[in-house]
Specification:
The structure is a single chain. The protein has a domain of 65 residues: Metal Binding Protein, Guanine Nucleotide Exchange Factor, Chain A. Helix content is 0%, strand content 48%. The protein is built from no helices and 9 strands. The strands form 2 sheets. Strands 3, 4, 5, 6, 7, 8 and 9 form a 7-stranded antiparallel beta sheet that branches. Strands 1-2 form a two-stranded antiparallel ribbon. The radius of gyration is 13 Å and the shape is globular. Bound molecules: zinc ion (ZN). Zinc ion (ZN) binds next to loops. Pfam families: Yippee-Mis18 (PF03226).
Length: 104
């Protein structure tokens, strides 16, 4: 009880962590773009993110059109990190958009 299993990322040139609690979230090899503009501002796109909780899927109007997305939260401190694309005609399903200010 109370123990949260967290993965640690190793062997990457740069590991991105939660700015609140330093939980490992993703790494430089999974970073797709730093130039993405989301509905709440700038976001970085990753194709692989660990140690997150996903919220309920919602249809949301985005800058690239209507997409089905889930909010994503840090598994440790529950900080809102960004969102994940579930269903989209613009990207292949799966990319995670994370606000740069949520990362350290
Ligand atoms: Zn955290």
């Amino acid at each position: 009880m109370g123990l949260i299993y967290r993965r640690f990322l190793d062997g990457h040139s740069r590991v991105y962590c939660c700015s609140e609690c330093k939980t490992h979230l993703s790494h430089s090899e999974a970073l797709m773009s730093k130039a993405f503009q989301g509905h709440h501002g700038r976001a970085w796109l990753f194709h692989d993110v660990v140690n997150i909780i996903q919220g309920q899927p919602q249809d949301r109007p985005m800058t690239t059109g209507q997409h089905t997305v889930c909010d994503i939260f840090c598994i440790n401190c529950q900080a809102v990190l960004g969102w994940k694309y579930v269903c989209t005609g613009f990207f292949a399903p799966g990319p995670f958009a994370i606000h740069p200010w949520s990362l350290t």
